[in-house]
Request: fold
Amino acid sequence: MVVEEGFLQVMERYRTIRAYSAGGVVYRFVPIDSTGQAGLYRWWAEEQNESAAVEVALVGRSHAGIWALPKGTPQAGETVEQVAAREVQEETGLKVRLITYVGSISYSFVREQVRYQKQVRHFLFEAIGGDMALHDHEYDLVEWFSLPEACRRLTYQNEINILYQAENVLYRWLEYRQKEGLK
Reply:
């Protein structure tokens, strides 16, 4: 019990700060190669009589071996959607179009005697231009991956869960667009 009390006393000394950030899952359609490889969305491409599949952009740090979804913190006066779009564009170098909200993750950590309780809100974005070579300095790697490969590469399970949620959202969005006759 002495250890538990000592632990609780140490934990009580930490000031708690609530923080949020926003980012998302950026997707693009890519041609199906000559072997027919198209990732998880081959069925969609075939139903649409398309020769395209879906890839998502991840950001990484080669020295730490970390792969993540792009995200970051707000600047004064930004809405959560503006934060997500700006951070995704800065960290990937891509121009993006916001599709919809996907979900959020929450976690806490301690840094320099401060306990942070953080919530990260994720959105689905379509890549509409830009160049990955123009990404900011926060990450040294930005690459496209098929959905299964992105799930294998992501470092944190909570971001893998967001990617699965984004896959479901994208599926529903594509069905809606097909039903409405939109391309």
